[in-house]
């Protein structure tokens, strides 16, 4: 029997618990967690994510502010905004929506965000902490995938996990978390030889490549748990549709459990951003 890993449902439970924890935190500290989301440019998909993030932050009981800058913003202007947010005690979490327009440096802006306000977990200090096993702020998408996997499988110890993709925002931190959970971890990527055969050995298959429906049913070991991180907008029958990196219609008949797109990893990512915001607020109030 096949199980759908319902990210919408699991994320709703995470946010519900978080709202309770937040209420308690506010009662004891007298401080409301604050999240600042920075959006440069007018990409319509980014606007949807940002709106969802602000909506969820409000549902969790946070203050949230949205900072919109025009597509031709200079590095100096963006730096000044980030520094202002770094110095604002009512802001506990800062998220700069990526990707940025070409004239802006992503590494520079990621390094400028105060590490203790870095709710994406992208600052080198947080990346290093994750690699050595003691991070407080963990990248939201991999954290969401781990919650889904633990709810589906319980203990992950000894399982062979294959991560498809090696990005700094998903593939690499995902592999670090799976290793921490005692999986045997393989990362495959565009230069990997015989990627299909390696995928077919996975007890846990995490697809994070950004290529629509690249992973076919024949790449999945029968009974494997499949987490689809891809969110790709494609035209299907003349309509705009979201599809994952996994060919869901094929993989659903082979996998033991699989997360859909939409309604899988996406909502979990936002829920984990909220978890990180509360974590950041807790840290800042205990100092
Ligand atoms: N600094 C930074 N941090 C991010 O976490 C970040 C980012 N930049 N840039 C863009 C990506 C993308 N991202 C998504 C989050 C939720 C959904 C989501 O909830 N998707 C819904 C569908 C939404 C729809 O219908 O369009 C779903 O999958 O069910 C999607 C995409 C976060 N990102």
Automatic annotation (TrEMBL):
GO CC entries: cytosol
Keyword Signal annotated: no
Pathway: One-carbon metabolism; tetrahydrofolate interconversion
SUPFAM superfamilies documented for this protein: Aminoacid dehydrogenase-like, N-terminal domain (SSF53223), NAD(P)-binding Rossmann-fold domains (SSF51735)
Gene3D superfamilies in alphabetical order: Leucine Dehydrogenase, chain A, domain 1, NAD(P)-binding Rossmann-like Domain
Keyword Oxidoreductase: yes
Entry GO MF terms: methenyltetrahydrofolate cyclohydrolase activity; methylenetetrahydrofolate dehydrogenase (NADP+) activity
Domain Tetrahydrofolate dehydrogenase/cyclohydrolase catalytic: 5-120
Pfam families to which the protein is assigned, alphabetical: THF_DHG_CYH, THF_DHG_CYH_C
Record-listed E.C. numbers: 1.5.1.5, 3.5.4.9
UniProt-listed GO biological process terms: L-histidine biosynthetic process; methionine biosynthetic process; purine nucleotide biosynthetic process; tetrahydrofolate interconversion
Tetrahydrofolate dehydrogenase/cyclohydrolase NAD(P)-binding domain sequence ranges: 139-284
Keywords: Amino-acid biosynthesis, Histidine biosynthesis, Hydrolase, Methionine biosynthesis, Multifunctional enzyme, NADP, One-carbon metabolism, Oxidoreductase, Purine biosynthesis
Annotated positions binding NADP(+): 165-167, 231
Catalytic activity: (6R)-5,10-methylene-5,6,7,8-tetrahydrofolate + NADP(+) = (6R)-5,10-methenyltetrahydrofolate + NADPH; (6R)-5,10-methenyltetrahydrofolate + H2O = (6R)-10-formyltetrahydrofolate + H(+)
PANTHER family the record matches: C-1-TETRAHYDROFOLATE SYNTHASE, CYTOPLASMIC, C-1-TETRAHYDROFOLATE SYNTHASE, CYTOPLASMIC-RELATED
Family: Belongs to the tetrahydrofolate dehydrogenase/cyclohydrolase family.
HAMAP family in the cross-refs: THF_DHG_CYH (MF_01576)
Function of the molecule: Catalyzes the oxidation of 5,10-methylenetetrahydrofolate to 5,10-methenyltetrahydrofolate and then the hydrolysis of 5,10-methenyltetrahydrofolate to 10-formyltetrahydrofolate.
Subunit structure: Homodimer.
Protein name: Bifunctional protein FolD
Native organism: Amphritea opalescens
Gene: folD
């Amino acid at each position: 029997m096949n199980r759908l890993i319902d990210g919408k449902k699991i994320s709703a439970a995470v946010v519900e618990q978080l709202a309770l924890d937040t209420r308690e935190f506010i009662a004891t500290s007298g401080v409301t967690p604050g999240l600042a989301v920075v959006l440069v440019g007018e990409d319509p998909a980014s606007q949807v994510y940002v709106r969802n993030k602000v909506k969820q932050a409000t549902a969790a009981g946070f203050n949230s502010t949205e900072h919109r800058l025009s597509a031709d913003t200079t590095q100096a202007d963006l730096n000044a905004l980030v520094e202002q947010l770094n110095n604002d005690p009512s802001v506990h979490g800062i998220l700069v929506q990526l990707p940025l327009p070409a004239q802006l440096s992503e590494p520079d802006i990621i390094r400028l965000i105060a590490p203790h306000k870095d709710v994406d977990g992208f600052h080198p200090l947080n990346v290093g902490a994750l690699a050595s096993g003691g991070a407080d702020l963990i990248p939201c998408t991999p954290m969401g995938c781990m919650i889904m996997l633990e709810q589906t499988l319980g203990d992950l110890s000894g399982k062979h996990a294959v991560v498809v993709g090696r990005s700094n925002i998903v593939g690499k931190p995902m592999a670090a978390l799976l290793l921490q959970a005692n999986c045997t971890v393989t990362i495959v990527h565009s230069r990997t030889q015989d990627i299909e055969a390696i995928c077919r050995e996975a007890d846990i298959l995490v697809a994070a490549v950004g290529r629509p429906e690249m992973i076919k049913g024949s790449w999945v070991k029968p009974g494997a748990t499949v987490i689809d991180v891809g969110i790709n907008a494609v035209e299907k029958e003349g309509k705009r549709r979201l599809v994952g990196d996994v060919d869901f219609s094929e993989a659903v008949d082979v996998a033991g459990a699989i997360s859909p797109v939409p309604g899988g990893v996406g909502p979990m990512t936002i829920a984990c951003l909220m978890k990180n915001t509360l974590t950041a607020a807790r840290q800042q109030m205990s100092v």
